[in-house]
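thread from #wetlab-drylab

HS: before we spend reagent money on co-crystallization trials with 6-O-phosphono-beta-D-glucopyranose, can we at least see a predicted complex? here's what I'd submit
DV: go for it
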Amino acid sequence: SESGCLSIIVLGASGDLAKKKTFPALYHLYRQGFLDSNEVHIFGYARTKISDDDLRDRIRGYLGKDAEHVSKFLQLIKYVSGSYDSEDGFQLLDKEISQHEESKNSAEGSSRRLFYLALPPSVYPPVCRMIKKCCMNNSDLGGWTRIVIEKPFGKDLESAENLSAQIGELFEEAQLYRIDHYLGKELVQNLLVLRFANRFFLPLWNRDNIANVQIVFREDFGTEGRGGYFDEYGIIRDIIQNHLLQVLCLKVKVLQSVLPIQDNEFVLGQYEGYRDDPTVPDQSNTPTFATVVLRIHNERWEGVPFILKAGKALNSRKAEIRVQFKDVPGDIFKCQKQGRNEFVIRLQPLEAMYMKLTVKQPGLEMSTVQSELDLSYMQRYQGVPIPEAYERLILDTIRGDQQHFVRRDELKAAWEIFTPLLHRIDNGEMKPKEYQPGSRGPVEADELLAKVGYVQTHGY
Ligand code: BG6
């Protein structure tokens, strides 16, 4: 593996994402020995004029209970303040990074610079220009400069392409890591293994056996505290176009075979009370809930509806993939009404996979009942910690492994799917249906599911 000095620069260091996700992920990597304090230095950069200790105090509470290790980790962090579009700040930052590199590098060591943009996308272009101009690793000894960015990558196809072009002029695709943290979740990473390492699934994974697939994201809270951001984007841009779509297709080829969304195959919702938030406009049409049916036009999936569903302020917090199989031909036990076979992958909370299947009801009678084969991670892998998505993805950026990041062509294909619908919503052509906070969402969504062939199982 590579050795030498590693500088991790968190831009937007005083913001929410950095505090809640980026620094804690770095701390956990440090605790597990992935960040060697002889090599690593962390820089926080933001506009706020605060001291190193001020920044440390701001993030301390998010790191953990082990005061001694937390303190040691915090000592690795230095803060530099400056604006996002002026050279002065970035030159100062470069000076600090270089000083650290000079103090740490042995003759054969190389310099690695990882820039993590925990920032709103509007400042990506100026920040990238400044990094390119002032802060690249130019060491003769080798090394690299890498840039990590977060969604939203644009607001529609055109703005996303524009952003990609601006950043693409500055950096090679190999230097760019577009994070979608759903790709770092344990059970999402498990999908390819499940699919290709199990004889169970190989012959079944197609239109002949699968009736429909649902990818569902529910939150049991609203947009409290971030209404202003959310209202500009809405649930499709916040969750469906990225997180759920990434789960659907870990391959870009599938994305390019998605047909245009049909007029009668989506339902939009907005929870009652959403507009009471003072940062949300009174007339807002922004959906906080959406169910969208995608159709994949290829040999394997033609005719199988892929239902992407996401909502805020619903009855539960859950993310899952639910694969429903077709009816058993013949149905000699007359048990079809009890429900179909399903394979469910629960991404969170309480990671699990289970299969719904029909068994004989134990006892003297010959009757059937729906039961479950259940693999719950908490029970099966007791004591094995499941890494946070961000932890794993940041480690990948250090190792130079881009497979769990969003490629530029993938991003384009994802925007192509949703842009026509998003434009109609933005134009005010589409009014979301109102739903009660704490409910399942608009009833029209359940009706749509039934219409495209989802058969609800008892007890679900
Ligand atoms: C973020 C969205 O990307 O993902 C949030 O902006 C959402 O609205 C969050 O709450 C959900 O992430 P997780 O990991 O809690 O499912």
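DV: Residues 181, 219, 238, 319 surround 6-O-phosphono-beta-D-glucopyranose (CB under 6 Å).
HS: ok that's useful, forwarding to the group
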